[in-house]
Amino acid sequence: MRGSNDLTTESGAPVADNRNSQSAGPRGPLLLQDQHLIEKLARFNRERIPERVVHAVGSGAYGVFEVTNPDAARWTRMRMFARAGKRTEVFVRFSTFAGSRGAADTVRDPRGFAVKFYTEDGNWDLADNNTPVFFIRDPLKFPDLIHSQKTDPHSNRQEADSAWDFFSHSPEATHQFTWLFGDRGLPRSWRHMNGYGAHTFQWVNAAGERVWVKFHFKTDQGVECLAAEDAARLAGEDPRHLQHDLYRAIERGDHPSWTLEVQVMPETDAADYRIDPFDLTRVWPHRDYPPMEVGRLTLNRLPDNYFAEVEQSAFDPGHMVPGVGPSPDKMLQARLFAYGDAHRYRLGVNHTRLPVNSPRGRLLAQGVNYGRDGAMRFDDNGGRAANYEPNSFGGPVETGEPLYAGMEARGLSGSHGPDMREVDDFTQAGDLYRLMSEDEKDRLVAAIAESLSQVQRTEIGDAIVCRSLAHFRRADREYGRRVAVAVKARRGGVRTACLRAGEAATPQS
């Protein structure tokens, strides 16, 4: 008689022996008829799915978002913001940017901060970072950025030459590099860092009026960072330090939270604002558009299974709900395609039906849409229902109500450069540097110099260093001078005039 705890094969048959393979006698060859052995080895060979190209090292948790300020309903018809006290379930995944699975989570790197809101109108995904800007503004450069930050095809390790060479040819990255090599490039924990939507999105209210909006999750634990030497030590002693910190905190009932603030720009401001409001390398100054609190996100529950719920979680900026939509931000426009495409490759076409990715408010039962077939279709595949539309059998029909407002497009098709309303790519990087305390500036300069000085001492390497120093100098003359001095001290003898010139530059007032 079968017991409730009997081990079975994938097909449900009981397993008589899970320790000894079938063979032709005690010392004979193994038998192909041993279905349990073949199945067990075959499954083991297929346990790993392709890792994420970026953000491969991650941690996740469930929680709730609660509206604290009902004023958000003035700007958006998103029902999750309809009233104060309204709660929406969420899943959040934190991650590092460049490292492959197995890399330490304490290394200097941008951090992913992705939030999935399970709203009553479907899932809304915000794939955030812990910086309010990014390295580039045009998605055509994204594969090159990632190749420069990942392992070199020859040495199979991250190379300073590649990272800094790309930066030296990409002045728009100066702002992000200043964030990255500052203190916030080494957060003390996932709990002690902010998350930023970074992109500009649109909100549309019940009257059809549109505004542009940016999202900021401000940690209620306070921003705290690791010293460089502590981050390096932890990378060796506990490579999953940030993961363990998050799990221990939630297990002991110390539930981390973040206050969601928004910056709202009237639609008419965008045309004449002094910077391009859709440029991902720039922020909207708070003095122009003050952040306003709208709610609080709290993490209070751990996943039961890391693979099923964290590794298989998939965030897609194209997943929007009524009241929120895209903007002309070129990077966002590309991500609307790229993220979903990556998930269909990595997890399969039915990844949105996995429990962690499935909508809560609108059950994906028979007949909600006409998606059918594909690998790993684990439900009734729509049963007998028609798999086309329109049909005469009561299948789901379109609503006729757009999720968001359309955007006017004009001009000649072709490859266009950025909308450079401000003088250069360096103003906001310099502003960020000048906001730092002297101790923060010291650590920023030391971190840049430690990395930049690893570039090879050759003619090409010296050119890379010179171009990089010029970017920091254009952001702030003192900034560039201090980095040049620190790089010279680390690289030894001076091979190029740019280091001497940088050292002699006078500080900017």
Q: Please give the CATH class of the domain at 58-158 and 187-353.
A: Mainly Beta
Instruction: Please give the CATH architecture of the domain at 58-158 and 187-353.
Output: Beta Barrel
- Describe the largest sheet: 10 strands, antiparallel
The CATH superfamily label of the domain at 58-158 and 187-353 reads Catalase core domain
CA distance, first residue to last residue: 86 Å
What form results from the Cα inertia axes? globular
Q: Beta-strand percentage?
A: 5-15%
- Helix tally equals 13
What Rg is obtained from the alpha carbons, in whole angstroms? 26 Å
E-strand count: 10
**Which fold name fills CATH's third level, the topology of the domain at 58-158 and 187-353?**
Catalase HpII,  Chain A, domain 1
Description:
The chain has 509 residues and is α+β, with helices and mostly antiparallel strands. Among the domains are: 58-158 and 187-353, Beta Barrel (Catalase HpII,  Chain A, domain 1); 427-504. The chain is built from 13 helices and 10 strands. Strands 1, 2, 3, 4, 5, 6, 7, 8, 9 and 10 form a 10-stranded antiparallel beta sheet that branches. Helix 3 packs across helix 11 (459-475) and helix 4 packs parallel to helix 9 (427-435).
